[in-house]
Structure formats: structure tokens, C-alpha cells
Amino acid sequence: MDERHLLLLGVLMAQSQHAYRINDFIETNLGRVSNMKRATAYALLERLEKRGLVRMEVQTVGNHPPRKVYSITEAGKQAFLDLLQALLARVEEASSAADIALMFIDYLPGQRAEELLRRRLDDIRKQIRRLAATPGHAFAPGVDYAVQRKIAILQAERDWLEQVLGSLTGPAAGTAASGPSREADRCGGGTSGQADRPGSGPSGQADRPAGEPSGHGGHRAR
Predict the structure, then answer these.
(1) How far apart are CA 99 and CA 108, in angstroms?
(2) What is the pLDDT of residues 30-75, one digit of tens each?
(3) 209 belongs to a structural domain
(4) pLDDT digits 0-9 by tens, 93-147
């Protein structure tokens, strides 16, 4: 099981819910930390039911169509606690698509690479501001921690991108700004000069837009 199962079991820890309400709750209240789709949630609920971790009952209220109501079982509560503790202590070692793309950035002309990195930086700044505007959860501080962690990660990448862009445009950029020409190094197995690679030069912090959070703890509007 993974974090998706933990999310569904966690929602049911509070009270029984019908499937539509579960999805609505996730989208409305937890959309900043989860992008689970409705179809995925339905499929996972069925798997949890088959494993005896949740129980499903069909209820009919008035003239409304029958609906499936899910409740967590005792086995489900134990599975939730076990999974919660395992995921909380585990450090992920996953690489992102951006990590793979960065390894080959020197195939692009320097100007194009800089343009794309600036576009990425702008998007990250927007994400930080959007997350920072998320209302606080006074009765669920754990949700706040999850949002603050996402902000801190984005802030770290923002700062790193500003440093990389500073190295591309600064006096020590060398040949990076004019685009790479290191096919011989690649084909011959040699190592290319570090001055040609983004991130190796001095930092050149760009001005942050007014109102953007700074620091690694994350600031959130209440």
C-alpha cells in the first residue's frame, strides 16, 4: 500500500462517508497536497474493501438513488496506523522528470536553456504564492505541515534556480551562455568542464516578486 491508501483510510478514520463525499472532501480540502482522481479513489476503495480494511454498505435515503457508504474496519485502522508510521519515517529516493531533463540541458543552446529555466522559476514562484494563500486548518495542524513542507521544497528549488540562472548570466558563466559544444567529451568518455554546467558558478540571486514568501519554514496566510 502507498500514500493513496493512507489518504483514503485517513479520511474514513473520522467518520463513514459515501464515495462522492470522500472525493469531494479530498478535492476541496486536500487538493493542495493530493491530486487523486475520482476514478482512482473508487478503484482503491474497492481494493480496500476486498482486503477487509473498509466495509461498504448500500444506503437509500428518500427518493435519492442508492449510494455506497464506506466505513473503516478494525483491521483498516491498524493498517492505517502501520502505514502512517512507515511513510512518516521514510525518505523517498525518487527522481523527477526535471532531474532527467537537467542531465541533458547542455544539448540546448545556452539562451534556450536559460529561457526554459526562467519559465520554470516563474511557475514555481506562482505555486509558492498559491500555496501560501491556503487557509490554515486550526483543527488539523497536520494538513498545515503538509502544505508548509511543499512550500519549503518549492522555495529550495526557487533559490537553486536563481543561483543557476545567476551562473548562466554572470561574469563566470564562461561558455554556458553561448551554448555547449562538447560532443567530443561525450563520445570519448571524457568529463566536461564544470564551468559549462548550470549550477557550478556563483549565485546571482534574482529579485523576488513582492509578497512572495521567503525562508524555509514557509509562510501561510490565515
Answers:
(1) 15
(2) 666 677 888 888 899 999 999 999 999 998 877 888 888 999 999 9
(3) no
(4) 767 888 989 999 999 998 999 999 999 999 999 999 998 988 877 777 888 898 8
Query: Which runs of E-coded beta strand occur in 10-79?
Result: 17-18, 54-59, 67-72
Assigned domain for 17 exists:
yes
DSSP state of 54: E
AA letter at 141: P
Total domains present in the chain = 2
115 with 158, same domain: the answer is: yes
C-alpha distances in angstroms, 199 versus 115, 159, 204?
A: 15, 11, 11
- Domain of 61, in residue numbers: 3-89
Strands 17-18 and 54-59: unpaired
Same domain? 124 vs 182: yes
